[in-house]
Amino acid sequence: FFRPIEKINAIIESYPKGYSGFKRFIALLDTEPDILDRPNAAELPQARGDIQYRDVSFGYEKGRTVLEGIDLTIAAGETVAFVGPSGAGKTTLCSLLPRFYEIQEGAITVDGLDIRDIQLTSLRRQIGIVQQDVFMFSGTLRDNIRYGKLGASDEEVWEAARRAELESFIRGLADGLDTIVGERGVKLSGGQKQRLSIARMFLKNPPILILDEATSALDTETEASIQRSLSELAEGRTTLIIAHRLATIRHADRIVVVTPEGIEEQGSHEQLLKRGGHYAKLQQAQHVYA
Ligand code: ATP
Prior knowledge:
It comes from Alkalicoccus daliensis. The chain is an alpha/beta fold. 36% of the residues lie in helices and 20% in strands. The chain is built from 11 helices and 12 strands. The chain binds adenosine-5'-triphosphate. Adenosine-5'-triphosphate binds next to helix 3.
Protein backbone atom coordinates (compact mmCIF):
# COMPACT_ATOMS: atom_id res chain seq x y z
CA PHE A 1 0.00 0.00 0.00
CA PHE A 2 2.73 2.43 0.87
CA ARG A 3 5.00 1.81 -2.09
CA PRO A 4 3.56 4.32 -4.59
CA ILE A 5 3.19 6.94 -1.87
CA GLU A 6 6.76 6.42 -0.83
CA LYS A 7 7.78 7.05 -4.39
CA ILE A 8 5.70 10.20 -4.55
CA ASN A 9 7.17 11.21 -1.24
CA ALA A 10 10.73 10.73 -2.43
CA ILE A 11 10.10 12.75 -5.54
CA ILE A 12 7.98 15.61 -4.25
CA GLU A 13 9.75 16.16 -1.00
CA SER A 14 12.95 16.61 -2.80
CA TYR A 15 12.16 18.24 -6.09
CA PRO A 16 14.58 21.11 -6.63
CA LYS A 17 12.52 24.14 -7.46
CA GLY A 18 9.05 25.24 -6.64
CA TYR A 19 6.96 22.21 -7.51
CA SER A 20 4.55 22.88 -4.72
CA GLY A 21 1.30 22.11 -6.50
CA PHE A 22 -0.02 18.65 -7.04
CA LYS A 23 -0.80 19.30 -10.70
CA ARG A 24 2.73 20.33 -11.39
CA PHE A 25 3.89 17.29 -9.56
CA ILE A 26 1.82 15.02 -11.78
CA ALA A 27 3.32 16.74 -14.78
CA LEU A 28 6.67 15.99 -13.26
CA LEU A 29 5.90 12.30 -12.85
CA ASP A 30 5.09 12.16 -16.53
CA THR A 31 8.50 13.46 -17.39
CA GLU A 32 10.34 11.37 -14.84
CA PRO A 33 10.76 8.06 -16.73
CA ASP A 34 13.96 9.09 -18.49
CA ILE A 35 15.71 8.27 -15.27
CA LEU A 36 15.46 4.57 -14.63
CA ASP A 37 17.22 2.03 -12.51
CA ARG A 38 19.97 0.09 -14.20
CA PRO A 39 19.13 -3.63 -14.36
CA ASN A 40 21.54 -4.50 -11.56
CA ALA A 41 21.09 -1.35 -9.50
CA ALA A 42 21.81 -2.00 -5.86
CA GLU A 43 19.81 -1.14 -2.81
CA LEU A 44 21.83 1.28 -0.73
CA PRO A 45 21.61 0.60 2.97
CA GLN A 46 21.94 3.61 5.29
CA ALA A 47 24.75 5.60 3.65
CA ARG A 48 27.68 7.08 5.56
CA GLY A 49 27.40 10.10 3.29
CA ASP A 50 30.73 10.43 1.49
CA ILE A 51 30.09 12.22 -1.78
CA GLN A 52 32.32 12.63 -4.76
CA TYR A 53 31.85 14.45 -8.07
CA ARG A 54 34.45 13.29 -10.59
CA ASP A 55 34.92 15.34 -13.71
CA VAL A 56 31.18 15.95 -13.93
CA SER A 57 29.71 17.79 -16.90
CA PHE A 58 26.07 18.60 -17.38
CA GLY A 59 23.79 20.80 -19.47
CA TYR A 60 19.99 20.96 -19.63
CA GLU A 61 20.09 21.34 -23.38
CA LYS A 62 22.43 19.97 -25.99
CA GLY A 63 25.30 22.30 -26.73
CA ARG A 64 24.81 24.42 -23.61
CA THR A 65 26.90 23.20 -20.74
CA VAL A 66 26.01 24.49 -17.29
CA LEU A 67 28.67 22.57 -15.36
CA GLU A 68 31.92 21.36 -16.82
CA GLY A 69 34.62 19.16 -15.35
CA ILE A 70 33.47 19.53 -11.76
CA ASP A 71 35.64 17.74 -9.20
CA LEU A 72 34.49 17.85 -5.63
CA THR A 73 34.90 15.59 -2.64
CA ILE A 74 32.66 15.97 0.40
CA ALA A 75 33.38 13.91 3.48
CA ALA A 76 30.63 12.24 5.50
CA GLY A 77 29.28 14.68 8.06
CA GLU A 78 30.78 17.74 6.39
CA THR A 79 28.75 20.93 5.79
CA VAL A 80 29.52 22.54 2.46
CA ALA A 81 27.95 25.80 1.34
CA PHE A 82 27.76 26.79 -2.31
CA VAL A 83 27.86 30.50 -3.13
CA GLY A 84 28.26 32.42 -6.33
CA PRO A 85 26.39 34.52 -8.84
CA SER A 86 22.81 33.72 -9.75
CA GLY A 87 22.65 31.19 -12.56
CA ALA A 88 26.16 29.86 -11.95
CA GLY A 89 24.85 26.36 -11.31
CA LYS A 90 24.69 25.90 -7.52
CA THR A 91 21.20 24.42 -7.61
CA THR A 92 22.01 22.33 -10.64
CA LEU A 93 25.10 20.91 -8.95
CA CYS A 94 23.02 19.81 -5.96
CA SER A 95 20.12 18.44 -8.00
CA LEU A 96 22.43 16.04 -9.77
CA LEU A 97 23.02 14.17 -6.52
CA PRO A 98 19.44 12.79 -6.14
CA ARG A 99 19.56 12.20 -9.92
CA PHE A 100 16.88 14.66 -10.90
CA TYR A 101 18.94 14.97 -14.04
CA GLU A 102 21.41 12.60 -15.63
CA ILE A 103 24.96 13.84 -16.00
CA GLN A 104 26.51 13.71 -19.44
CA GLU A 105 30.07 13.04 -18.37
CA GLY A 106 31.94 11.91 -15.31
CA ALA A 107 30.51 10.25 -12.24
CA ILE A 108 28.96 11.07 -8.90
CA THR A 109 29.43 8.61 -6.10
CA VAL A 110 27.90 8.13 -2.67
CA ASP A 111 30.08 6.04 -0.35
CA GLY A 112 32.12 5.15 -3.41
CA LEU A 113 29.14 3.79 -5.37
CA ASP A 114 28.19 5.40 -8.67
CA ILE A 115 24.72 6.84 -8.09
CA ARG A 116 23.60 5.30 -11.40
CA ASP A 117 24.27 1.88 -9.87
CA ILE A 118 22.00 2.57 -6.90
CA GLN A 119 18.24 2.08 -7.03
CA LEU A 120 16.69 5.50 -7.41
CA THR A 121 14.26 5.17 -4.50
CA SER A 122 17.03 3.90 -2.30
CA LEU A 123 19.31 6.79 -3.32
CA ARG A 124 16.59 9.37 -2.66
CA ARG A 125 15.79 7.85 0.69
CA GLN A 126 19.29 8.88 1.75
CA ILE A 127 18.79 12.50 0.76
CA GLY A 128 16.55 15.04 2.44
CA ILE A 129 15.85 18.36 0.81
CA VAL A 130 14.65 21.45 2.63
CA GLN A 131 13.63 24.21 0.31
CA GLN A 132 11.73 27.43 0.40
CA ASP A 133 8.64 26.13 -1.39
CA VAL A 134 7.29 23.60 1.04
CA PHE A 135 4.92 21.02 -0.37
CA MET A 136 1.77 20.94 1.77
CA PHE A 137 -1.43 19.06 1.21
CA SER A 138 -4.89 19.56 2.66
CA GLY A 139 -5.04 17.34 5.68
CA THR A 140 -4.02 17.34 9.31
CA LEU A 141 -0.79 18.69 10.66
CA ARG A 142 -0.02 15.14 11.77
CA ASP A 143 -0.23 13.83 8.21
CA ASN A 144 1.72 16.73 6.84
CA ILE A 145 4.55 16.11 9.27
CA ARG A 146 4.35 12.33 8.88
CA TYR A 147 5.02 12.83 5.25
CA GLY A 148 8.70 12.61 6.23
CA LYS A 149 8.14 9.06 7.50
CA LEU A 150 4.89 7.37 6.67
CA GLY A 151 3.53 5.48 9.60
CA ALA A 152 5.48 7.43 12.23
CA SER A 153 3.90 7.28 15.68
CA ASP A 154 2.46 10.35 17.40
CA GLU A 155 5.37 10.24 19.76
CA GLU A 156 7.81 10.48 16.87
CA VAL A 157 5.75 13.28 15.29
CA TRP A 158 5.84 15.28 18.53
CA GLU A 159 9.57 14.72 18.89
CA ALA A 160 10.15 15.99 15.35
CA ALA A 161 7.88 18.98 16.00
CA ARG A 162 9.77 19.76 19.17
CA ARG A 163 13.16 19.65 17.44
CA ALA A 164 11.83 21.87 14.66
CA GLU A 165 10.51 24.31 17.31
CA LEU A 166 6.95 23.77 16.14
CA GLU A 167 5.69 22.13 19.31
CA SER A 168 4.37 25.13 21.21
CA PHE A 169 2.54 26.38 18.13
CA ILE A 170 0.79 23.01 17.74
CA ARG A 171 0.04 22.71 21.47
CA GLY A 172 -1.61 26.12 21.25
CA LEU A 173 -4.10 24.93 18.64
CA ALA A 174 -7.42 23.56 19.92
CA ASP A 175 -7.13 20.48 17.70
CA GLY A 176 -3.39 20.00 18.08
CA LEU A 177 -2.02 17.55 15.53
CA ASP A 178 -5.56 17.02 14.20
CA THR A 179 -5.71 20.62 12.99
CA ILE A 180 -6.50 20.79 9.31
CA VAL A 181 -4.05 22.85 7.30
CA GLY A 182 -4.26 24.17 3.80
CA GLU A 183 -7.04 25.88 1.93
CA ARG A 184 -9.80 24.75 4.28
CA GLY A 185 -7.87 24.93 7.47
CA VAL A 186 -5.26 26.91 9.33
CA LYS A 187 -2.95 28.87 7.13
CA LEU A 188 0.67 28.53 8.12
CA SER A 189 3.15 31.37 7.91
CA GLY A 190 6.27 31.07 5.76
CA GLY A 191 8.36 30.35 8.85
CA GLN A 192 5.93 27.69 10.12
CA LYS A 193 5.95 25.95 6.76
CA GLN A 194 9.71 25.84 6.85
CA ARG A 195 9.61 24.39 10.33
CA LEU A 196 7.16 21.79 9.14
CA SER A 197 9.56 20.77 6.41
CA ILE A 198 12.37 20.63 8.99
CA ALA A 199 10.18 18.42 11.21
CA ARG A 200 9.65 16.09 8.24
CA MET A 201 13.38 15.83 7.82
CA PHE A 202 13.92 14.95 11.48
CA LEU A 203 11.49 12.09 10.88
CA LYS A 204 13.02 11.06 7.60
CA ASN A 205 16.47 11.20 9.20
CA PRO A 206 18.54 11.05 6.02
CA PRO A 207 22.35 10.89 6.16
CA ILE A 208 22.56 13.52 3.42
CA LEU A 209 20.82 16.90 3.41
CA ILE A 210 20.42 19.55 0.77
CA LEU A 211 19.33 22.92 2.12
CA ASP A 212 18.07 25.32 -0.48
CA GLU A 213 18.26 28.53 1.47
CA ALA A 214 15.17 30.67 1.34
CA THR A 215 15.45 33.88 -0.60
CA SER A 216 12.03 35.08 0.52
CA ALA A 217 12.08 37.41 3.45
CA LEU A 218 11.40 36.14 6.94
CA ASP A 219 11.77 38.51 9.84
CA THR A 220 15.22 38.47 11.41
CA GLU A 221 14.15 36.69 14.56
CA THR A 222 12.31 33.93 12.71
CA GLU A 223 15.24 33.65 10.38
CA ALA A 224 17.70 33.22 13.23
CA SER A 225 15.61 30.62 15.01
CA ILE A 226 15.08 28.66 11.81
CA GLN A 227 18.83 28.74 11.30
CA ARG A 228 19.19 27.15 14.73
CA SER A 229 16.82 24.33 13.83
CA LEU A 230 18.61 23.82 10.54
CA SER A 231 21.99 23.63 12.25
CA GLU A 232 20.62 21.02 14.61
CA LEU A 233 19.17 19.13 11.65
CA ALA A 234 22.52 19.25 9.83
CA GLU A 235 24.41 17.80 12.77
CA GLY A 236 25.91 14.42 11.95
CA ARG A 237 24.77 14.58 8.33
CA THR A 238 26.55 15.46 5.13
CA THR A 239 25.00 18.82 4.29
CA LEU A 240 25.02 20.78 1.06
CA ILE A 241 23.73 24.33 1.37
CA ILE A 242 22.66 26.32 -1.66
CA ALA A 243 23.39 29.66 -0.09
CA HIS A 244 21.91 33.00 -0.93
CA ARG A 245 23.10 34.92 2.09
CA LEU A 246 26.66 35.13 3.24
CA ALA A 247 25.90 35.51 6.93
CA THR A 248 24.39 32.05 7.26
CA ILE A 249 27.28 30.11 5.78
CA ARG A 250 30.16 31.54 7.76
CA HIS A 251 30.23 28.45 9.95
CA ALA A 252 30.10 25.91 7.16
CA ASP A 253 33.08 23.54 7.21
CA ARG A 254 33.76 24.60 3.66
CA ILE A 255 32.53 27.24 1.28
CA VAL A 256 32.62 26.49 -2.42
CA VAL A 257 32.43 29.42 -4.81
CA VAL A 258 30.69 28.43 -8.03
CA THR A 259 30.90 30.75 -11.02
CA PRO A 260 29.86 30.14 -14.63
CA GLU A 261 33.46 28.99 -15.22
CA GLY A 262 33.21 26.30 -12.55
CA ILE A 263 34.46 25.99 -8.98
CA GLU A 264 36.58 29.07 -8.54
CA GLU A 265 37.79 28.63 -4.99
CA GLN A 266 36.97 26.74 -1.84
CA GLY A 267 37.93 26.80 1.78
CA SER A 268 36.73 27.96 5.17
CA HIS A 269 35.41 31.48 5.67
CA GLU A 270 38.74 32.60 7.12
CA GLN A 271 40.81 30.93 4.44
CA LEU A 272 38.77 32.52 1.68
CA LEU A 273 38.88 35.97 3.27
CA LYS A 274 42.67 35.71 3.48
CA ARG A 275 42.85 34.60 -0.11
CA GLY A 276 41.33 37.91 -1.22
CA GLY A 277 39.46 36.37 -4.17
CA HIS A 278 35.82 36.19 -5.23
CA TYR A 279 34.46 35.33 -1.79
CA ALA A 280 36.39 38.12 -0.08
CA LYS A 281 34.96 40.57 -2.64
CA LEU A 282 31.44 39.30 -2.02
CA GLN A 283 31.93 39.87 1.69
CA GLN A 284 33.21 43.39 1.12
CA ALA A 285 30.31 44.20 -1.18
CA GLN A 286 27.88 42.99 1.45
CA HIS A 287 29.42 45.27 4.02
CA VAL A 288 29.22 48.21 1.68
CA TYR A 289 25.53 47.60 0.98
CA ALA A 290 24.51 46.41 4.43
P1 ATP B 1 20.42 31.02 -8.19
O1 ATP B 1 21.43 31.58 -7.22
O2 ATP B 1 19.73 32.10 -8.95
O3 ATP B 1 19.49 30.02 -7.59
P2 ATP B 1 22.09 28.90 -9.33
O4 ATP B 1 23.54 29.18 -9.17
O5 ATP B 1 21.48 27.95 -8.39
O6 ATP B 1 21.28 30.26 -9.36
P3 ATP B 1 21.00 27.21 -11.40
O7 ATP B 1 19.61 27.39 -10.96
O8 ATP B 1 21.66 25.92 -11.13
O9 ATP B 1 21.92 28.39 -10.83
O10 ATP B 1 21.05 27.52 -12.95
C1 ATP B 1 22.23 27.32 -13.76
C2 ATP B 1 21.88 27.55 -15.23
O11 ATP B 1 21.03 26.52 -15.68
C3 ATP B 1 21.16 28.86 -15.50
O12 ATP B 1 21.62 29.36 -16.73
C4 ATP B 1 19.71 28.45 -15.59
O13 ATP B 1 19.02 29.30 -16.45
C5 ATP B 1 19.81 27.05 -16.18
N1 ATP B 1 18.70 26.19 -15.72
C6 ATP B 1 18.35 25.94 -14.44
N2 ATP B 1 17.33 25.06 -14.37
C7 ATP B 1 17.02 24.76 -15.67
C8 ATP B 1 16.04 23.90 -16.28
N3 ATP B 1 15.20 23.17 -15.53
N4 ATP B 1 16.01 23.86 -17.63
C9 ATP B 1 16.89 24.57 -18.38
N5 ATP B 1 17.82 25.39 -17.87
C10 ATP B 1 17.90 25.48 -16.53
